[in-house]
Amino acid sequence: MRQTNQKSLNHKRLGIMGGTFDPIHYGHLVAAEMARYEFNLEKVIFIPTGVPPHKIERKITSSEFRYQMVSLAIEDNAFFDVSRIEIERTGLTYTVDTIRLMQQEYHEYELYFITGADAFREIFTWRKANEILELTQFIGASRPGFDARVFLNQLQQELPELYERMHFLEVPALAISSTDIRSRVKKGQSIRYLLPEPVRIFIEEKRLYR
Ligand code: NAP
User: Fold this and answer.
1) CB distance 52 to ligand 1 below 6 Å
2) Which of 12, 30, 32, 204 could make an SS bond with 173 (beta carbons 3.0 to 4.6 A apart)?
């Protein structure tokens, strides 16, 4: 597993944190903060997904609620921001479209797309993976125990250019997962300290994940 933090002298760097965030939790926040620090990112923009192409079968919380939870979670960090770019797009949201738009808006920046290493494992199925790799670097935030070897071998063979632009960050706090939080709420268990308190209160008030 490689972890690089080469500094580009010509470009400012911007992190784009993509995820469903259903709900956002401390694992995501620690991952974004570690990426910001390790890769000298000027700031990190969280982009909650609209209708993700790989989730049309599973019911996810409304985009607006997921956006609001992200807003609550990042409000005390001046280096973090949240964007509505995906939730306002109609139809399925593909990462390639998002990155194209971000590239136009932040053309003076070098983009770093951050998401879960688990999610990156599926990148061969993403629309226009080859084009994405031309526009951005990748940071895969991995859970403890994540084994990247099979993925990296496949990547090296199928998309060697992407292999060069792929970085991994091991994030112990990613032992927390959205799936586990949803399941805990459903079972009536506590989710305190797994996510920021304003997000926990939001979940309670809106009676999410029951
Ligand atoms: P997912 O399939 O829900 O998540 C896969 C794994 O990655 C889960 O373990 C998840 O943990 C983790 N994860 C997701 N986002 C993360 C983040 N920002 N930081 C750390 N861990 C994260 O993945 P997803 O959230 O729907 O998609 C991730 C990103 O990939 C999104 O930006 C999505 O648009 C993009 N994507 C694009 C395409 C495409 O363009 N065709 C296809 C798939 C995904 P938690 O459940 O705890 O978050």
Assistant:
1) yes
2) 30
User: Alpha-carbon distance 204 to 210, whole Å?
Assistant: 9
Q: Are residues 141 and 171 in contact, defined by beta-carbon separation less than 8 angstroms? A: yes
Residues ≥6 apart with Cβ < 8 Å to 155: 123, 162, 163, 166
Task: List, for residues 59-75, the tens digit of each pLDDT value.
Answer: 899 999 999 999 999 99
What residue's CA is closest to ligand 1, atom 36?
95
Q: Three-state SS for 137?
A: strand
User: Which residue minimizes the CA distance to atom 42 of ligand 1?
Assistant: 126
Quick check: CB of 141 below 6 Å from ligand 1?
A: yes
Higher-confidence position of 54 and 206: 206
Question: What is the model's pTM?
Answer: 0.93
Task: Measure 11 CA to ligand 1 centroid, in angstroms.
Answer: 26
**CATH number 2.60.40.3140 given to 13-206:** no
Where does the pLDDT of residue 158 fall: very low under 50, low under 70, confident under 90, or very high at 90 and above? confident
Q: How far is CA 96 from CA 18, 111, 133, 134, 154, in A?
A: 12, 13, 9, 10, 21
Q: Is the CB of 15 under 6 A from ligand 1?
A: no
- 86 CA closest ligand 1 atom index: 34
Residue 71: left if φ>0, alpha if ψ -120 to 50, beta else—which one?
alpha
Q: What are phi and psi of 181, to 5 degrees?
A: -65, -45
